[in-house]
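Record 1 of the preview.
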Amino acid sequence: MKAVDKVYHLMEKESTKNANEYLFAKSGKQLKKIFIEDILFVESMENYVNIFTTSSKEVVYSTLKLFLESLPGDHFLQVHRSYVVNIKHIHSIEGNMLHVAGHEIPIARNLREQAFNSIINDRLVLKM
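->
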């Protein structure tokens, strides 16, 4: 009975994990499936957000705050009032700019320390 219970809990955990792998966003007249791991960053434009993925750009009617609530917090970080980035896709940091797949994302002064702590604090090889 313990073995069956253990397998049941493992399968239940796996099914909730798979449910968080993607989301559906209404872009135009279509509902498009967007895999969370493919999202590079999200840019706010008042009541719309541009979702930049590895293969496309989708424009969705939503506020950045509302869209951020649907993303897993351990993978995404708001670095500017208009930008949320996927930490996995950050290539480099230069001054107040993040480089993500050929795009430059500004880091707000008031969010800079929080961003650096979240992005590189535990992974910094050479501390100065």
